UniProtKB/TrEMBL annotation:
Signal peptide: none annotated. Keywords: NAD, Oxidoreductase. It comes from the Bacteria. PANTHER family: 3-HYDROXYISOBUTYRATE DEHYDROGENASE-LIKE 1, MITOCHONDRIAL-RELATED (PTHR43060:SF15). InterPro entries: 3-OH-isobutyrate_DH-rel_CS, 6-PGluconate_DH-like_C_sf, 6PGD_dom2, 6PGDH_NADP-bd, HIBADH-like_NADP-bd, HIBADH-related, NAD(P)-bd_dom_sf. The keyword Secreted does not apply. It comes from Microvirga guangxiensis. Residues 3-163 form the 6-phosphogluconate dehydrogenase NADP-binding domain. This is 3-hydroxyisobutyrate dehydrogenase.
Amino acid sequence: MAKVAFLGLGVMGYPMARHLAAKGHEVTVYNRTAEKADKWVSENGGRAARTPREAAQGQEIVFACVGNDDDLRQVTIGEDGAFHGMDKGAIFVDHTTASAEVARELYAAAKTKGFAFVDAPVSGGQAGAENGVLTVMCGGDADAYAKAEPAIMSFARACRLMGETGAGQLTKMINQICIAGLVQGLAEGIHFGKRAGLDIEAVLDVISKGAAGSWQMENRGKTMNQGKFDFGFAVDWMRKDLSIVLNEARKSGASVPVTALVDQFYADIQKMGGNRWDTSSLIARLEK
Ligand code: NAP
């Protein structure tokens, strides 16, 4: 069992840290809104620190799961950031969905200070975090990854080193590219079927068993048909992720025209007031 800290007790971080404590790790938590950290400690034991720096001191592994690149910089290299308190030989594992660029920047900063940085974005959503069955995609040095993997598996069902620093974030970008186009296709199919007057539940039931079947069809098809969009990953977060993807594609020269278009469709959803709707809400702009 390890001495660890967890920075960022949001929708994802709160249950991830809980799984670490439940597995017997000694957990110190930090959250910007301190009440959440105090509540976490009252439920799970451990200790709350008042700054990321204080949380990081004396730990073997420091986990983080905050919002975006700037938030991550703030809790690492910012004033009272964790990087000012990390022990030599320790490992910083970042679960934020962020750019490959910030991962490389923080990896280099960590290296000069004598500790390791692993980018480790997750997939599986709130339910995956609550149930401890996330998929984790990592980038960084093999020895640091090997040391961190057993602790990460406290809240994951799959975890893999994808390559050098940034490779975890690049893998997560591919995950989001694959979701974006697929959800739009599913939305168009359901919309088309409704206009044709078919029984959509029957249609989904039969075609999900064939080549058109997907996780999205299985888990979101019926609720999209019913106009229910309250199932986790918010449109605002998806736009943040797609902007990371589009920046990366601009740099690498990759062609992602459907992803760019779907990003604009999500902007339409935001204009409709759907910032907190989940990503399956693409159908709403076809039906309005
Ligand atoms: P969330 O509920 O909004 O939580 C964000 C956490 O980060 C909160 O603890 C927040 O503190 C903290 N934070 C944000 N900015 C900060 C800053 N500048 N300084 C210090 N702390 C800061 O978000 P979430 O849903 O847990 O998502 C976290 C990350 O996981 C995001 O990168 C997201 O894209 C990714 N992700 C989310 C899902 C999902 O389904 N939700 C799935 C996969 C990946 P406060 O409590 O003080 O606001």
